[in-house]
Amino acid sequence: MIGKDRIFSTLEAILKKSPAEQTEAVLIGTTSGLTRYANSTIHQNVAETDTKIYFRTSVGKKMGVASTNSFVPEDLKRTLLNSYYLAENQRQNPDLPELPPKATYPKLQTYLKSTASFTPKQRADKVKRIFKKAAKFDLDIAGSFSTSQSEVAVVNSNGVRAYQPLTGASINVIALSPDSSGYAEGLSRRVRDLDFEAITDTAIRKCLDSKNPKEIKPGRYDVILEPCAVGSIMEWLNYIAFGARQFHEGTSFVSGKIGKKVLGENITIYDDGNDGGGIAFPFDFEGVPKKRVWLIQKGIAKGVVHNSLTAKREEGQSTGHALTPEYPEDPMALNLFVKGGNGSLRRMISSVERGLLITRFHYINGYLDTTKALMTGMTRDGTFLIKEGKVKHGLKNLRFTDSMVRAFSNVVMLSRERQVINSWWQDIGSLVCPAMLVKDFNFSGKTEF
Amino acid sequence: MKEKIRTTVSHLKRSGVDYADLRLVRKTTESIAVKNNNVESLSRDENYGFGIRVLYSGAWGFASSSIVTPAEMKRVAEEAIEIAKASATTLKKPVILAECDPYVDSYASKYEIDPFSVPLEEKIGLLLEVNSVLLKDKRAKVAKSSMDFYDTRKFFASTEGALLEQEILESGVGMEVTAIEGGEVQKRSYPSSHGGDFATRGYEFVRAMDLVGSAERVREEAVALLKAKPLPSTSATIIITGSQMALQVHESCGHPTELDRVLGTEISLAGGSFLSLDKLDNLQYGSKVVDITADASLEGGLGSFAYDDEGVKAQRSYLVKEGRFVGYLTSRETAAVLNQRSNGTMRADGWNRLPLIRMTNINLEPGEPSLEELIADTKSGYLLDTNKSWSIDDQRLNFQFGTEIAWEIRNGKLRGIFKNPVYTGITPEFWNSCDAVCNRKDWHLWGIPNCGKGEPQQVMHVAHGTSPARFHNVKIGVSR
To answer: Which of A139, B48, B66, B348 pairs with A445 at a CA distance of 20 to 30 A?
Structure first.
């Protein structure tokens, strides 16, 4: 960790030397460790120290971006000038906005010393206990456990000074028998908040309960999607629907439908970087404070997320959803929440006459027809048949192919309880999802395992 | 720099490691993206750092840093040892590495024109020209064209005495257009989707491609798809062309032959493989016309290099021969399980990542007929082109792909087009239904710059040499 004062003073000194009309520097520093295990042994165990610095400069309506991972002043200056060279050789972009103005940010507790100082030995001790517990049931364990500390800073020539230190801890556990598997995961800014016992128990129980899986014919079934399964669908909906780019290119299922009903009345989806119910992060990579954005409210399309550039085109304001500077047209929701309902997983199961309980999906792809959010993917690590309100037995995995617009219009129950789900952007955001009971979900194929 | 590396490796030797290696990597990237006649992004990145991999008491540790100083190298070396000691507390049996000759060598990939020396004006100008042709129809709403260039220089040194320097230059270019009318959205890309085609070549790779000349056809096909019928749901004979064939090889042959997946060490993210050890030399993976090789020694592919990231020399080996499954992609650790030597597929996507078994150039070897002859020989079927969507289960058996376009084949001739083509199958059944692979005239080494694997995730550049191939009784049009 370089620290706020040194980052600001170094970057301010570099910015003063900028020949550009406007200049921005974004710094992302990370010290992280990840312990990976399979066959109930640690087989990969890694650590990384890195700092990435982007410079974004504009000359008139022309912008260039250059980046380096050296915090040495000479390298920073060279990278700044490289950015300026690119800006000078750019073409005019009439939509290019001014860099954002100075702002204030809410104080969020996102850094925990106990997580920052967590060692490889401590990680190994935690996973050894998982292996030991699984061994009692003659099961193998695979998964990963990571801890990190990082810092993000944005400094620009308009006075933006944003800095946030972060820690993160995440774990996933897969329990394996010769013919079944079970999965559970956890994500938190504080390593102590990860409930290792409960996560292990869930993975083991799912693996044991799905032994001797039976085959079921593809077709339409009522399904209970546990939070991890909902999370992976939400991740894809986010890629294809909730950003200004997809909206304006006309490929999103909400394109041209703001104010119209697009999903079921019980579906509300929003993004809020300041909500500590998820992995909070108060500003975007332009230093714009994150705003709560209602994406879907009671089934009605309400809006999409913006950065400065896409907001200017709309004659609106950025919602604080800029990604790093090399993606100037791709604002993205990183702190997604699906509102829960009044149900519970237990009530869902007891209400299903004949249906499936799905722990999670594997390898979803949402590019089949984005206007309908048509997706395909496989079930994985715990798929069960529910009959007459009870979980009967494990099932061999199935492939679904269905429109998520249709599926999310057919949700008949949502759990009150929600889970924070891992994503690839887990240091600065998360997906917070309930379980869902969906009627008439379409499965198009099956496997032999 | 070599001296710093030697000093650190000597320090590691004195520290009592079983084995250690150090990789120092500098990577420079330039990306240009144009959308609707506007340069959307123009960026350059420089990335520099080192990673140290240590085998200590039979267990692995890896640490890395972007601070390239002698003091930091020493600190990171010690950190890697501490991590290995933590790994050792769960060890069941010590890691054994297959033998490897400690090469001292240097290599630079061949190119004619350094893309970083080509004026930005020329590169941007070409992309804008492509954009303007793509937009010459009011239904063509979104045009994108892009170029990416990568210059990677890496040192590798091991406690066994290897000292290797490699310079690899890669170039990529592509275009796509999205046509929209009345709520219908259709896309066509060239030469491939998801960023285009890539090669370990210089700017001559871009100049050799007729981008502007192809843009009109690409646009017209996207617009024509707006009025096309969806591919019917049935079982049919299909011919898969171009980059889609590359992705088919990638997902259903490349990944399942990775021996780390087979041994269960990738379960936590990407999954395992149906190609278990008992199937080696015992499974008819495909029909007799199916030959699949791994060949990092082939020039110009995104999987081309002289040595992998644990110092094993690039080589060519068969994965599938006359349809029989005969080989895995291996590392020194996994090859030892089979009492073999590594076939050189350990690759890391940067200094800060551990090398993993990755695809190199995984190729469907060319067969007999030309594409024209194959179409003429097909009484009834469909020709499917350019990937749109992809999904496969965690054992690599049940796959489903979507392509951008399909043409009907009737009585040996191409007829009308169909939109939203999807096909699905089970890997060995599918490859056993293959009765023809086209010849070398139609064979191309496709570059795929975005293969994901590992935790923390790594994005690898790989390639697939493929020509169109024909498959029978394939389930198509399964989307709802």
So the answer is: A139
Which residues numbered 280-309 in A keep a CB inside 8 Å of some CB on B?
Answer: none
Task: Tell whether A164 is within 8 A of chain B (Cβ).
Answer: no
Whole-number pLDDT of residue A213: 98
Fold of the B2-225 domain: PmbA/TldD fold (3.30.2290)
Q: Is A9 on the interface with B (CB under 8 A)?
A: no
- Which residues, 6 or more positions from A309, have their beta carbon under 8 angstroms from its beta carbon? A95, A96, A97, A328, A329
Question: Vertex A363, ends A362 and A368: CA angle to 5°?
Answer: 130
Residue range A311-331: mean pLDDT, rounded: 95
pLDDT, average across residues A130-150: 98
Reported as a single tens digit per residue, the pLDDT across A150-175 is 999 999 999 999 999 999 999 999 99
DSSP line for A13-48: HHHHT--SSEEEEEEEEEEEEEEEEETTEEEEEEEE
Contact status, residue A442 vs residue A400, Cβ threshold 8 Å: yes
Per 3-state DSSP, what percentage of chain A is helix, strand, and coil (rounded to 5)? 25, 40, 35
Q: Which residues of chain B have pLDDT under 50?
A: none
Q: Is the pLDDT of residue A217 over 60?
A: yes
CB within 8 Å: B86 and A124: yes
Q: Check whether residue A197 and residue A238 sit in a common domain.
A: no
pLDDT at B3: 86
Choosing among B178, B255, B391, B397, which should be mutated to test the A contact, i.e. which has the most A CBs within 10 A? B391
Q: Rounded CA gap, A432 and A231, in Å?
A: 7
List the domain boundaries for chain B: 2-225, 229-476
| Closest Cβ–Cβ partner in A38, A250, A368 for B141 | A250
Search chain B and give the residue with CA nearest A255: B183
| CA B466/CA B447 separation, integer angstroms | 11
Determine phi and psi for B404, rounding to 5 degrees: -75, -35
What total of structural domains would you count in chain A? 2
Contacting residues of B for A447, CB less than 8 Å apart: 393, 395, 397-398, 426
Contacts of B35 in chain A (CB under 8 A): 329
Tell me which of A57, A378, A381, A427 to substitute to probe the interface with B (most B C-beta atoms closer than 10 Å). A378
Q: Is A342 exposed, middle or buried (CB count within 10 Å of its CB: 0-12, 13-18, 19+)? A: exposed
Chain B interface includes A31 (CB < 8 A)? no
Range of the domain at A280: 213-446
Residues A288 and A197 reside in one and the same domain: no
Q: pTM of the entire structure?
A: 0.97
**b vs e for A197-220, b when ≥16 Cβ sit within 10 Å of the residue's Cβ?**
eebbbbbbebbbbbeebeeeeeee
Determine the Cα–Cα distance for residues B45 and B238; give it in Å rounded to an integer: 42
Which residues 36-55 of chain A have a CB within 8 Å of chain B? Answer: 36-51
Triad A117, A121, A127: Cα angle to 5°: 110
To the nearest whole number, what is the mean pLDDT of chain A? 97
**ipTM of the complex, rounded to two decimals:** 0.96
A133 contacts chain B (CB < 8 A): no
Q: Could you say which of A152, A183, A206 is where a domain stops?
A: A206
- Both A194 and A228 in a single domain? no
Strands (E), B341-443: 346-347, 356-357, 362-364, 380-392, 398-410, 413-419, 422-426, 434-437
Name the closest residue on chain A to residue B351, using Cα atoms: A48
**What amino acid occupies position B429?**
E
C-alpha A181/C-alpha A179 separation (Å) is 7
Q: Which one of B60, B185, B397 has the shortest CB-CB distance to A448?
A: B397
- Residue A337 and residue A302 share a domain: yes
pLDDT exceeds 60 at position A147: yes
Residues A54 and A189 placed together within one structural domain of the fold: yes
Q: With an 8 Å Cβ cutoff, are B60 and A41 in contact?
A: no
In whole angstroms, what is the distance from residue A296 CA to residue A268 CA?
5
Answer for the pair A37, A141: CB distance below 8 angstroms, yes or no: yes
